Amino acid sequence: MKIRYGGDYNPEQWPEEVWRRDYELFDAARIDTVTVGVFVWALTNPAEGVYDFTVLDRVVERAAAEGRSICLATGTGAHPPWLARAYPEVTRTDFEGRRHRFGQRHNSCPSSPAFQRLSAELARRVGRRYAGNPAVVAWHVGNEYGGACYCDRCGVAFRTWLRHKYTTLDALNAAWYTTFWSHRFTDWEEIEPPSALTEHWRGPDHTAFQGITLDYLRFMSDAMLANFRAEKAALRESGDLPVTTNFMGMYRPIDYHRWAADLDFVSWDNYPPDDTSQARMALAHDLMRGLKGGQPFWLMEQTPSYTASRDVNPLKRPGLLRLWSWQAVAHGADAVLYFQLRASRGACEKYHGAVIGHGDRADTRVFREVAELGAELARLGDATLGARTPARVALLFDWDSWWALELSDGPSRLVRYLDVVLSYHHALWDAGVDLDVVPVTADLTGYEVVVAPALHMVKGDLATRLEAVARRGGSVLSTFLSGRVDENDLAFPGDVPGPLAPLMGIRVDEWDARAADVVNPVRLGTDGLVVGSRLLFEIVVPDGAEVIGTYEADFYADTPAVTRHAFGAGHGWYVATGLDQTGVSWVVRQVLDRHGLTGPYADLADVETTVRVTPAGDHVRFLLNHRADPVEVTVVTGGTDLLTGAGVDSGQTVKLDRYGVLVLREAAAP
């Protein structure tokens, strides 16, 4: 066994004589796993009640004969033209109320009975036909679920979902605060999906009733999950092969925490917006790994060169493909796969990068890099399979807080949830900390530090569990706009930050939102480091907390901007403003240093370090140089370089080349 290496393969787009060349090149690149059948609905089910697996049979038979493992898709990632013609209601109605016609993909209404019935039946037939093939190692349901529908059928389904959640209209009216603007509902049929025709007037994020829109986001996430569950259940009739679908990292429309339990393993598609997104990618990897309690995931898609989905599609610089692939492994990937293995000749992805380009060559730089990485992964073998991250730091990530904060009118629409989370994650990443990114429902007992940026919504017993972290000696760090609303997006009665106030030892009396170019300096610590802060400035009154940083300007100069509150044997930290990255990193280092958690290579800027612990107990250290120039590293703990087999001594200086990688099985402590 080894890390799976390969990717999306669409041989149905090519005559069979091309397939022979494909497998010759797959051999050269050490490609061992192919994902097939993702978009074959129109081929395998060309008319209602008609199924033709001739082409898919040949695809699967050829892959198996060539010794490849197969991740086999149900083919339901895009519905065929005949389905839309036979059942016009299968296409979506958009936010503006327009019923779409056939076209694109992601155009299936999740509430359409025809889509529900026929997609599940196709999955059932795929399962029956191929479950016994030993080359098939996993099922791939759908593809990159996303979008939303606002049709009448979704309205009916939404009302059913609401009845299940609230039981009574009185409970719903209370949750949605419908005494405002004469919105009190007296019949379930009065409830409409929130759209440009109802509660929204300036786009999806501007709603008169945040509670209604928040529930529709939850409903739509659950509606698509129901589609996934139906296909998974159909596959399960033929056996227990693992089932997945490809997530998209930090993707706002779907709450992946609500989906995680239904996937047998997580897989996701990594398409960073530029070539300086290493910290952002690390957060996304950690988020995906955290969906199932630290279980390794598959990197289902990445481009070997460039995408074709943006206005500008930069090429990966030499070495970045290798570096970013190893970054995925460092954060928990047990598979490194591409989209796509052979480039399409037509349609919107003909210029999307591929392992095999239109020139059909093996002597391109991109192909050589793919082949060299394949050889490295072969040398690594099973050394990291099943390995987990030994994190003592947790970062909370919450789709409900994301949605609620950005739906809110006030205090500032310039504050974006991801920007805040990325800033605090970047500080942890820079400090070389092994961390888990977990939902707010996660068990926090194993963590010494919990970071909860922009924890806008506090649900259930979360405040009590955070207090328990501090009470036993841990540290909890939260920020402005935290502790504002409950699970219904209703403001907590009493002082901000609501149920977090006892832990933080403060109250927020007022807040000041300003344009992006307004900077209020903040002075931090006894050394008087001055940093900038922007967008939102909460005016804090300590209620037992110690002042760690103060504003320098405006009428609230000399009032607290950063506080620390002794709580039990630990602390609650609160950052009341949008500090710049220098300020965020300073605060995070203060928290980590108290627990001795700052990483051993933290002083090396843009050198990322993570640890994975194998089932056998081996510690594998990854050192990743994200610089465009070489760097020398003094090794803290020696061991064996798993990519070369060479021994590395403690205290030895090693050179990491531009975008270089060291994978070190650390020697056991004496």
UniProtKB/TrEMBL annotation:
<feature type="domain" description="Beta-galactosidase C-terminal">
    <location>
        <begin position="606"/>
        <end position="666"/>
    </location>
</feature>
<keyword id="KW-0479">Metal-binding</keyword>
<feature type="domain" description="Beta-galactosidase trimerisation">
    <location>
        <begin position="391"/>
        <end position="597"/>
    </location>
</feature>
<feature type="binding site">
    <location>
        <position position="154"/>
    </location>
    <ligand>
        <name>Zn(2+)</name>
    </ligand>
</feature>
<feature type="binding site">
    <location>
        <position position="149"/>
    </location>
    <ligand>
        <name>Zn(2+)</name>
    </ligand>
</feature>
<dbReference type="Pfam" id="PF08533">
    <property type="entry name" value="Glyco_hydro_42C"/>
</dbReference>
<comment type="similarity">
    <text>Belongs to the glycosyl hydrolase 42 family.</text>
</comment>
<keyword id="KW-0326">Glycosidase</keyword>
<dbReference type="InterPro" id="IPR029062">
    <property type="entry name" value="Class_I_gatase-like"/>
</dbReference>
<feature type="domain" description="Glycoside hydrolase family 42 N-terminal">
    <location>
        <begin position="8"/>
        <end position="379"/>
    </location>
</feature>
<dbReference type="InterPro" id="IPR013780">
    <property type="entry name" value="Glyco_hydro_b"/>
</dbReference>
<dbReference type="GO" id="GO:0004565">
    <property type="term" value="F:beta-galactosidase activity"/>
</dbReference>
<dbReference type="Pfam" id="PF02449">
    <property type="entry name" value="Glyco_hydro_42"/>
</dbReference>
<feature type="active site" description="Proton donor">
    <location>
        <position position="144"/>
    </location>
</feature>
<dbReference type="InterPro" id="IPR013529">
    <property type="entry name" value="Glyco_hydro_42_N"/>
</dbReference>
<dbReference type="InterPro" id="IPR003476">
    <property type="entry name" value="Glyco_hydro_42"/>
</dbReference>
<dbReference type="GO" id="GO:0009341">
    <property type="term" value="C:beta-galactosidase complex"/>
</dbReference>
<feature type="binding site">
    <location>
        <position position="143"/>
    </location>
    <ligand>
        <name>substrate</name>
    </ligand>
</feature>
<dbReference type="Pfam" id="PF08532">
    <property type="entry name" value="Glyco_hydro_42M"/>
</dbReference>
<dbReference type="InterPro" id="IPR013738">
    <property type="entry name" value="Beta_galactosidase_Trimer"/>
</dbReference>
<feature type="binding site">
    <location>
        <position position="109"/>
    </location>
    <ligand>
        <name>Zn(2+)</name>
    </ligand>
</feature>
<keyword id="KW-0862">Zinc</keyword>
<keyword id="KW-0378">Hydrolase</keyword>
<dbReference type="GO" id="GO:0046872">
    <property type="term" value="F:metal ion binding"/>
</dbReference>
<dbReference type="GO" id="GO:0006012">
    <property type="term" value="P:galactose metabolic process"/>
</dbReference>
<protein>
    <recommendedName>
        <fullName>Beta-galactosidase</fullName>
        <ecNumber>3.2.1.23</ecNumber>
    </recommendedName>
</protein>
<dbReference type="InterPro" id="IPR013739">
    <property type="entry name" value="Beta_galactosidase_C"/>
</dbReference>
<feature type="binding site">
    <location>
        <position position="151"/>
    </location>
    <ligand>
        <name>Zn(2+)</name>
    </ligand>
</feature>
<feature type="active site" description="Nucleophile">
    <location>
        <position position="301"/>
    </location>
</feature>
<feature type="binding site">
    <location>
        <position position="105"/>
    </location>
    <ligand>
        <name>substrate</name>
    </ligand>
</feature>
<dbReference type="InterPro" id="IPR017853">
    <property type="entry name" value="GH"/>
</dbReference>
